[in-house]
Design goal:
Shape: elongated
Number of domains: 3
CATH topology of the largest domain: Beta-Lactamase
CATH superfamily of the largest domain: GAF domain
CATH architecture of the largest domain: 2-Layer Sandwich
Order of helices and strands: HHHEEHHHEEEEHHHHEHHEHEEH
Length: 360
């Protein structure tokens, strides 16, 4: 569910005029005057009456006047009230649903490609920035591991998660290791640790290092050493970003300084992931606007995001990032549908293997 707030008490007339101002501003990107609201004729009120109501809404913190001679624009509180109780959520059209389903079904059963396609769809259908945060490697569940000999003392460690994510890392051993010993080590790890997260595996290996058997058994000692070097437990999640250039046509980005801040935000991916993780916790839909978070306040933007995963286990988040003047009535159901569709696509490709690994 969308995060809720306790709204100020407004009359039905106040709410209707606030709704008209928000919808008008979303479409025009220009401060809204009482005359422009009156011309729409939905409230049946005169411009003078509407002007008085808008002044009251400004006093209540729902509207702000950028300049004394200008109309008014919605505040963060106004957008939240609009989302919670004023807007009429629009269903995703059958055409867009088919387009999403066809695009994700047409992607090979590779989770990284599925997430890349999802970030593109989020951007393409919203004309904003699409974001997908990949899983934290240490939280992924092991399905299998393999060690492939390269040249000299170098070995390629291949880790396959139960959710289908693949991680490769080249490691170097203290001395040459035979192909047969590498195979035995890989089989030992797969048979004994499949179904555990990489972080759980690391913790068990650390305890095993103190065991007397591990100090005497050459193959077990080798296996522990290979696993410690090859399992990158602390590698953080990544964020896939699509559509930053589409924002340049937005009126909010006519200021070159704001454009620079936008690209600085997406250039530092590690900081971007950190900010996303701070503002998105747990499952469910989240709508963050302006000062709600460090990420959105820097540009006075909004983030609409939700979790995705398999079998009730959250793998990551996805969302749409753009100017606060976005069509929430369309964006929120789009994010929700793509979250569910990505989860189904991942489960269809890897759900069975994930369940099998947990039973081992």
């Amino acid at each position: 569910m969308v995060e809720t707030r306790t709204p100020h008490k407004l009359s039905a007339r106040d709410r209707e005029i606030l709704k008209d101002v928000i919808l008008t501003y979303i479409l025009s990107a220009e401060p809204v005057s009482s005359r422009s609201v009156a011309k729409q004729g939905r409230s049946g009120l005169s411009a003078a009456t509407i002007r008085n109501v808008m002044a009251d809404l400004e006093d209540a913190g729902y509207l702000v006047q950028p300049h004394t001679s200008a109309g008014r624009v919605p505040t963060r509180a106004a957008y939240h009230l609009f989302i919670e109780s004023l807007m009429q959520v629009e269903r995703i059209s059958a055409r867009d649903r088919r387009y999403i389903d066809e695009n994700l079904k047409g992607v090979p059963a590779d989770p990284e490609q599925l997430m890349g396609a999802t970030s593109h769809l989020l951007s393409e259908l919203s004309h904003q920035v699409g974001l997908v945060v990949t899983p934290q490697l240490g939280d992924t569940v092991l399905k299998a591991v393999d060690f492939v000999p390269l040249d000299g003392r170098r070995v390629l460690c291949v880790v396959i998660s139960a959710d289908g994510f693949l991680d490769n890392k080249v490691i170097e051993t203290e001395e040459g290791v035979t192909r047969e010993d590498l195979k035995r080590s890989a089989n030992y790890l797969t048979e004994n640790f499949s179904g555990l997260t990489l972080r759980e595996i690391r913790d068990r290996l650390l305890r095993m290092m103190a065991d007397e058997r591990a100090q005497m058994d050459r193959l077990l000692a080798l296996t522990i050493d290979l696993a410690r070097s090859g399992l990158d437990v602390d590698v953080g999640p990544e964020v896939l970003v699509d559509g930053t250039s589409s924002l340049l046509a937005q009126p909010e980005l006519t200021d070159i300084q704001r454009v620079r801040r936008l690209f600085d935000t997406f250039a530092d991916r590690a900081r971007l992931v950190k900010m996303l993780n701070q503002c998105i916790q747990g499952q469910g839909m989240r709508v963050l606007i302006g000062d709600d978070s460090d990420l959105t306040s820097a540009l006075d933007f909004s983030l609409v995001a939700t979790a995705y995963g398999i079998g009730g286990r959250t793998l990551g988040t996805l969302g749409i990032f753009g100017p606060s003047r976005m069509e929430y009535q369309k964006v929120i159901p789009l994010v929700h549908y793509l979250g569910e569709t990505l989860s189904r696509a991942l489960a269809a490709g890897f759900g069975d293997s994930a369940r099998d690994s947990k039973r081992n």
